[in-house]
Amino acid sequence: MTDFLLRHFDRLVIEGLGLDRHPELFSTYFGHYKKLVYLAQSPKPGSVDQAKAVADRMGLGFEYRETGYGNLETALKSAVGRDDARGAEIRRDAEAVTWHR
Fold first, then answer.
1. pTM (two decimals)
2. What rounded mean pLDDT belongs to the chain?
3. What distances in angstroms separate CA 98 from CA 10, 86, 94, 95, one per listed residue?
4. d(Cα 50, Cα 65) in Å, to the nearest integer?
5. Nearest to 43 by CA among 74, 8, 68
6. Alpha-carbon distances of 94 from 79, 83, 84, 89, rounded to whole Å
7. Are 41 and 68 in contact (CB under 8 A)?
């Protein structure tokens, strides 16, 4: 489970799969699940307790892993921090494409 799925669990899973109207389908969808793994990128206060409550509601074990955003921050900083030479090259390419149209 991700932060997004946790925030919208009832709407996306319970209502989305029709479990609010047909709870007998629960075992069809989740009968082979053993545990719920909460992969938290930026957990808010109470998120872990909320995810545990979902796992309990589903009769599943629970595992919490704070993943963060991995290398995304580093990659974005690297991409944004490139020198202006690359930007000038891109602008020249754009001008060439515009000129040839």
1. 0.66
2. 84
3. 49, 18, 6, 5
4. 14
5. 68
6. 19, 18, 15, 9
7. yes
Sequential DSSP letters for 31-96: TT--EEEEEESSPPTTHHHHHHHHHHHHT-EEEEEE-TTTTHHHHHHHHHT--HHHHHHHHHHHHH
Residue 67: what residue type? T
> For residues 40-64, b (16+ Cβ closer than 10 Å) or e, as one string?
beebeeebbebbeebbeebeeebeb
State residue 54's pLDDT score: 96
Classify burial at 30, counting beta carbons within 10 Å of its beta carbon; exposed 0-12, middle 13-18, buried 19 or more. middle
Instruction: Please name the amino acid found at residue 85.
Output: A
Distance CA 5, CA 23 (A): 20
